[in-house]
Amino acid sequence: MEVLTRLLPKLAELLVGEYNLQNEVKGGIKFLQVELEHMKAALEKISGTPADQIDKQDKIWARDVRELSYDIEDKVDTFMVRCKGSKQGKHHGLKKVIDRSLDLLMQPKIRHKIATDIRDIKSRVEEVGKRRDRYKIQSVPANPVSATIDPRLLGQYRMATELVGIDEAREELLRILIEGDKVSMQQGKIISIVGFGGLGKTTLANAVYQKISAKFECRAFVSVSQTPDMRKLLKLLFYELDKNINVETLDEGQLINELRQFLLEKRYFIVVDDIWDIWVWETIRCALPHNNKGYRIIVTTRNVKVAEHVGGAYNIKPLSPHNSRILLNNRVYGNNDAEKSSDDELAEVSDKIIKKCAGVPLAIITIASLLARKGRNKMDWYEVCNSIGTGMENSIDVQNMRKILSYSYYDMPSQLRTCLLYLSVFPEDYKIGKDRLIRLWIAEGFIQYEDKRNNLFETGESYFNEIINRSMIQPVYGFTGIIEYCQLHDMVLDLVRCLSSEEHFVTVLSDTEHTSPLTKARRLSLQNSEADHASTWRTRSMPQVRSLVVFSYAINQIPALQWFKVLRVLDLKDCDLSKGYSLKYLGSLFHLRYLNLSSTWIDQLPKEVENLQFLETLDIEENNISLLQLNIAQFRHLLCLLVDFGTIVSNGIWSLKSLEELSWLRMDDESMDHIEELGLLTELKVLRMSLHTDKWNSKMAESLSKLRKIQTLCICYARGQCDIGGLDAWVTPDHLRHLHMQDGCWLSMLPAWMNNPSHLADLCELHIAVRELQEKDLNVLGRLPALAYLNLLVDHVSLGILGRFVVGASLFPCLICCELKVFVVPVVFQNGAAPRLTEFYFDFHLREVKEIAGSDGGGFDLGLQNLPLLETVTVCFRSGGASNEEEEEAKAAVRKAAEFHPNKPELVSCRKFGALTQSVLPCFSHSPILLASLSSLFVSFSDFL
Fold it and tell me: I need a labelling partner for 162 at 20 to 30 A (CA). Which of 385, 741, 850, 944 fits?
């Protein structure tokens, strides 16, 4: 259906655009618009219905419509590319005259071809429509709820002896619900259990319900479907509470009123299992009154937004490896001893299976049921292990597992389902970069403008976050505490691969599978490291393939580029192209929107790449390209340009008026003379600049002030250290999220615009180097409402600023990770400051701290006890002439502070931090590989407390 969403606007554009189409062709296009609108409506019903509830003929018809839609879009795009491409002349003088003459000769041929194509397409559409009528395909059920038993209900009836690893979570919830306090039992309390499908939310809720429900006068456990009949649900709730009340004749409003009256003076305990929508909870909540008799409500949901709205969100945790092994052994062997395997030779494969199941009870139980039928054959167990996430056998247990997970899939809007299916191009356990994924979605046309205030990338971010909120993908946080990647649980990958294969959405070639026939392939994902199809593909035309994603271990599978006709996405990230694969025909991929050649060991792009006039994303980071010898101005539609820290992009960079992300912009003496032109790139949202000049231009602030849409700004200096002046005049944009001005770039004082926290309300990540910082300045940073990561470097030793800094209560409310560098004395957090801080790095000078301790008695008071969520503390000691005894005293003080902390945070202590690391490490900050290597050298001399 996603292709029809894109295709219909394109047909409309053909009618109103300057394409000079004949009346007959326009009539054919109007016919197609009407027919495809109706087909789109029918496909929406089919695609939102579980596959096991769709008639086989409906499936065939839907498949035919999808294939036809792809073919139509390919023909329409080819026509548009030829027309628009011919108008974008890139030559001058005689060559330009020749090009125009050739274009004039080609126009009649191009228009004749589209006229023929439209007639052919019209007849095919008519045939598809007649075929549907001819065989009288049944309509899709109005209510997509299976009549069979919901497999989730089994979780309510597990015997206590079957429950593994649930005791700790159950006791934690009981403490929250009861607290052993008589007063608290007279108050109301609501808990929402939230988590991934199959984690055991229903089982946990039922375990708590069985434990304490007898303490309440009224109690009920009701399950909510995805499309609930609210009247039926409320009646069921009434019967659970009191089976003697007759409510058959009451409507929904009357039922709510009766329930409220019935419960108003009673202590009640109700579990509402599996809520999908906020409006459902709001309706149920109307029937559950607040009273002073003492009530408890547990809600389970997969949706984070629902849990947050209900309140009291409790994130259910996966099983530990220990409990996972118990559950697996119990299901396979009937053996509850996790440490004892019935077969030692199966221990290794068992560990691999447990790791793949990632603590999800549903996954462990499903796999255990397969293993139990395999006997004790190690090879059979490995076969099951390797199939996890890549298409397991269709046993009843696997089908039930997929059915449980598919509830979440079919609950999503169609555009989110499409975006999730696309994740099947990635191998299992692959960390998928958020920005890369969103750019791929955009290039594929999955994201459409929904709000004029947001661009496509921002809309894509909202899709990404919504899929996370629905527990279908797992977020992976970077060291800043911000989501940078995502991963698919292997069970979700299995579901996604299964659905994708059925629809011929993605064709995957890997060692363990080959999904969908190649003749139907629209999107190819090459993950194969052994089989060699390259010899047959060298001469094989692929006119229908629109997306090719290749992973490093499948480099020998890359087909020759000249055989692709409508390719829109080419992603060769991490493939070593230095071993002979040719990019010679790259410039013939006229439809290309997305080109990712990062980490491919290339040293230049072919000149013909300038032909890719519809390119939106060009990523050539982490290569050996010192000078990009292309006329960048040709890429009029470019949204994202990613090059290396030192790559020179000399020609046309200021002409890219649509550019939204530019990393890195290399500024040398010559380009700094044209810094005013930076202000022309008004659509920029992400800008990373590397300074390769000592000629700092005070006009930088003026140019940056014109970039009102900037959300991420990074300025790094490549030649040691540089004092940045004039940035006090920078008018910061309204939605700045990430600011990085460190790595050799120094501010003399905190800029004035930092004093307006409301103007920096979205700033969540800050790297900044300030030579002179006062305590009041630190308090200014502490008032930034969204700041989650702070990396602050000062020069207090050189300036003689030796006093202790204290962070007061209520400051840094959202801070998760904090690095405070080269403060002479440790910064102390008072009670109530940084309540969310989990990782804290600081360094201090032993000699100066010892002297200050003697004068004010502060000693090594770090205030760590005031940081309730602290998990990791890293301390670097700078000796400054201190003795070994003084160093040991400091270590003991830090160790004592950690031991007295309730969380017992992990402590890492670096040995005396010398001048070498202070001066050398910042110089390599632009090179992650060199920095990692150098850092490991110093870490090897670290001293762990």
Answer: 385
| Plot region of 219 (φ>0 → left; ψ -120 to 50 → alpha; else → beta) | beta
C-alpha to C-alpha distances, 340 to 325, 327, 332, 585, 880, nearest whole angstrom: 9, 12, 13, 59, 55
Among the residue ranges 28-42, 426-440, 678-692, the one predicted with the least confidence is 28-42
Give the bridge partners for 509, in sequence order. 514, 526
Nearest to 869 by CA among 895, 893, 904: 904
pLDDT at 337 over 70: no
Q: How many CB atoms lie within 10 A of CB 442?
A: 21
Q: Contact at 8 Å (CB) between 395 and 370?
A: yes
pLDDT at 54: 81
State the Cα–Cα distance between residues 48 and 35, nearest whole angstrom: 20
Residue in 887, 885, 937 with CA at minimum distance from that of residue 912: 887
Question: For 836-854, how does the pLDDT look when each residue is reduced to its tens digit (9 = 90+)?
Answer: 999 999 887 777 776 665 5
Task: Report the C-alpha gap between 406 and 396 in whole angstroms.
Answer: 15
Give the torsion sign (CA, 809, 812, 816, 817). Answer: negative
Alpha helical stretches, state H, 652-734: 669-672, 700-705
Q: What is the pLDDT of residue 536?
A: 52
Q: Record the pTM.
A: 0.84
Name the least confident of 165-169, 299-303, 877-881.
877-881
Q: Helix, strand, coil proportions of the chain in percent (round to 5)?
A: 45, 15, 40
The 3-state DSSP class for residue 348 equals helix
Would the CA dihedral through 129, 135, 139, 140 be positive or negative? negative
Bridge partners (DSSP) of residue 640 are 617, 661
Q: Band the pLDDT of 147: cuts 50, 70, 90.
A: very low
Chain-wide mean pLDDT for the chain? 82
Asked if 62 contacts 40 with a C-beta cutoff of 8 angstroms, the reply is no
Tokens 């910064």 correspond to what residue?
Answer: 827
Checking if the pLDDT of 287 tops 60, the result is yes
Contact between 364 and 358 under an 8 Å Cβ cutoff? The reply is no
The H-or-E segment that residue 719 falls in is none
High-pLDDT (> 90) share of the chain, %: 38
Which among 652, 520, 163 is positioned nearest to 364, based on CA atoms? Answer: 163
For residue 594, give Cα distances in angstroms to 82, 437, 455, 609.
Answer: 19, 11, 17, 12
Please, which contacts does 641-647 make with residues 24 or more away whose CB atoms are closer than 8 Å? Answer: 642/598, 642/618, 644/620, 645/690, 645/716, 645/718, 645/926, 645/927, 646/690, 646/692, 646/718, 646/926, 647/620
Q: Which residues pair with residue 793 across a beta bridge?
A: 769, 821
Mean pLDDT of 532-560: 77
Could you count the other beta carbons within 10 Å of the beta carbon of residue 799?
12
How far is the C-alpha of 815 from the C-alpha of 812, rounded, in Å? Answer: 5
Q: Where are the alpha helices (DSSP H) in 220-340?
A: 230-241, 252-263, 278-286, 304-310, 321-333
